[in-house]
Specification:
The chain is 9% helix and 49% strand. By secondary structure, the protein is mostly beta strands. The strands form three sheets. The chain has a five-stranded antiparallel beta sheet.
Amino acid sequence: MDYILNRRLGEAEVGRYDLEGDQGYLMFANVQELMTRPIEEQMPESHRIYTDIQFLVSGEERLSFYKLHPNAKVIDDKFDSHDIAFYESDPSQQETEILLKPGMFAVCFPSDIHRPNGSITESKSNKKIVIKIHKDLLHL
């Protein structure tokens, strides 16, 4: 969090910023500007290598998550190329929702399936920083 605040990443242009390791493989930041959408339209996703810290700079966002479970059905596996997989929605899973306002953050571990960038009331533009932290730094 110090890095985000002290380096003024909230003022940075959209893009990727290497933070730690050769070519930032251990930790990097993605600065994003996106339009929120209804949470039901967001595909559930997870990662294997990186933990996300999703820090909201402006706007508002609904983020939901639940534990990754063995019966989760992958519908788009991009683990090898982008460390992400998308899942079929699972109505049997109780999702926990977090409402993010500017200055707030959420942490999504590889053991979580999450749906970021959901609208709270209506579609709005938001800016956020997603810090990607390699599992080797966290010793999970």
